[in-house]
Amino acid sequence: MANAALSRTQGQLAVTCEDAIVQVRDIGKNYGDVEALRGINLEFQRGKLTTLLGPSGCGKTTLLKIIAGLVPASSGEICVNDKVVTGPGPERAFVFQDFALMPWATVMRNVGFGLELRGVPAIERNRVARRYIEQVGLAGFEEKYPHELSGGMRQRVGIARAFAVNADVLLLDEPFSAVDEQNRRKFQEDLLRLVDLEKKTFIFVTHSIEEAVYVSDRIVLLSPRPGRISQVIDPMIDRTASPDDIRRDAGYLNTVEEIWQGLRQYAE
Amino acid sequence: MPSSPGRARSRMQAIVSHTKLNDAAGALKAPPTPGQALQSFAENRRSFWIILSLAVLFAAWEIAGLVPISFAFPKFSETVLAFVEMVADGTMIYAYFLTLQPLVLGVLISAVVGIGLGIAMGLSNKIEWLLAPVFIVLQAAPMAALVPLVTFIYGIGLTAKTLAVVMLALPVIVLNSYKAVRHVNPSLVDMCRSFQGTRKQQIFKIIIPDASPVLFAGLRLGIAAGFIGVMLAELLITPTGIGDLITYHRSVANYGHMYASVASIIAVSTLTLAGLQYFETNVLRPEKRRK
Amino acid sequence: MTLFGIRIPMMMSLVMWAVLWEVVGRLDLIFLIPPMTSVISAGMDLVQTGSWQNATLITLRSFVFGMALAIVVGVPLGVLMGRVRIIDNIFGLWVNMFVSAPLSALVPILMILFGLGETTVFVTVFLFAVWIIVLDARAGVMQVPPSLIEMGRCYGASRWTIFSKIVLFSALPEILAGIRIGLIRGVKGVVIGQILVSIIGYGELFELYSRSFDMERFWALTLILFAAAMLLSAAVELFEKRIEYYAGAR
User: Fold this and answer.
1) Class of A1-91+169-268 per CATH?
2) Phi/psi of residue C49, nearest 5 degrees
3) Bridge partner list, A77
4) What DSSP designation does A4 have?
5) N or C: which end of chain C has fewer CB within 10 A?
6) Which neighbouring-strand residues pair with C228?
7) DSSP summary character for residue B31
8) What domains sit in chain B, N to C, each tagged with a CATH number?
9) Are the Cβ atoms of A102 and B209 closer than 8 angstroms?
10) Which pLDDT tens digit goes with each residue over B164-210?
11) What is the pLDDT of residues C135-168, one digit of tens each?
């Protein structure tokens, strides 16, 4: 375990790294009188999975939506591939907590929807969609409608849709929170496989400590009211081991415990 | 508000399918006695209950006519005979030919204008500010009071009757379309934005499809209001079509014919609305078809 | 809407439309639309006349009695339909049919059965209001959370206690929503009934003013009716909000 790349600017933690693909510069966000985020300085390394972790109300989802360009920041700026972003862009794809699947469209059309919006012809987008449907383990469900799928399968559709547009950065907003525990573990393992396979940058939001430690290359802890960076942890877990061994690994358990000690003050 | 009847109806269907499951499980156990068989038949078939409830009302009607509870209350059988007679001699069919003209025209105008205005109100804050309060007032208000005014401007012809239909149907359709757009799943809109959908794509690929169930519910309510409007127009402005049949047979104390005309318009309106709902769930919403 | 950074409340647009009406009225384009100000002054005079007060009394009486009967019949019937399958199966079809049927066509029948008087209007109000009250009461009773009923049974509540202390209270928001829509429909019913009967209450006044082309009074009466319908609906909504204060936690 190592605390890398930390520095303080004006009393706030700032996180830097080499080869950053996403740079969050001095982001602040106010909703009326409520300050949701203050002075966030954060860089996300290319090809890694970085998790934003914190108790509810710490603004982690807000920060993710600001990076996605879905929510405007009150101050500061976001750079992706060294370009300032003002809204959603093709280099980022978002996975929604509530899946955001169109109930009137088949799995195939849902997965290909990002391409449909770009005007990709049907044959081409169905080819791409079919590939990713297979990759998330939903082959054979192409013509089903979302209401015919379980919660876990629906989120696989959401993930396949994000992969299908071939973005550099995938933004995942608590993607497994509506999925039951057994499926959640399977999902986490599948996610690691996809991270390995697709060589993309992942920014992941969760409130589950175990999940964060299990999947992340780096964990950024946020503290609430207003949301600030409170700690950065690189779990350094040997991912070549089997999933069950990892969950029993002392390093894994210690990291979970350390994060819990840091967060317990926010629990009521 | 408009969802309550529909909500109740879908719950009824849920109960029916639930009992089906229970029955399937119970059927494995033992051969049913005739009593049980009858009971399970009754539980399985919605048509059984439809026939039974029709029979109960018609029997009550027949008995009330036999008593009779009023000199102006014909028996059910008399009414049916009168109905058959009017269909056979073509008067009923011609009456519907006349009544449906302002109704269909008025509903079409209300649907196009109403859904258009409602969607515009849902999409634009300025249009919402300008029109929403007006239509909120018009929907809650008894528009029937304004029907006599229409005759001043447009006389007693088709235009006046069409306008009466529009006056009753339009506010309902506008407000429901407006609510439909305002209640679109915000997460789906975010999803469309995150994939850089244009505003046009957002409206046509996300907002309108997601709003369409409520749009259709509004359309059904609008058609129901249109039926009220066309009957008001035919009874108030000048008797034509079904309104004429009702007024004429009332004036000559031909109560069987009068009741048959009234019952027929209620039946036509009910069948129209039920047919529309069937069409909606079975043709327009593919995700509902398989269940 | 905001204009120059200032938020303008939505109901202000009604004021704008009223001003527009005034302008159109002043321009004297159509005799049907007299200026808003003269409509209002006609309204001021109108409410002081004996004929208006008398008509209002008749209208209110039909409305109140009709609504009272609709609630007294509708709520228990809806609750019964929600609890007893056979009653639901027999009445369900008719309630669903009449809730959206063109009841204006029934008024001529009521006129021959009950005469050209208040009784017909009273029955019209009842028929317009009752079906939606039944349907919403039924829906409310049917969607009581099963865990609440199980909770009652765990603590040894009798069937009657469960019904009176859990089911009815749990269904209250839906019952009230049904009554609110019923009230709005009742207002439409009272107007449609009176206009078709046309010799009593507001129906008589409307007939009188439109025959004599007294547009100021016609509009004044209309606006009074519209305002009454809006106020009634707003009042019930306010009451409903207080009930939903606890219902929202469901």
Assistant:
1) alpha beta
2) -80, 150
3) A25
4) -
5) C
6) none
7) P
8) 3-69 (no CATH), 85-289 (1.10.3720.10)
9) yes
10) 899 999 999 999 999 999 989 899 999 999 888 888 898 998 999 88
11) 999 998 888 888 888 888 888 777 788 888 788 8
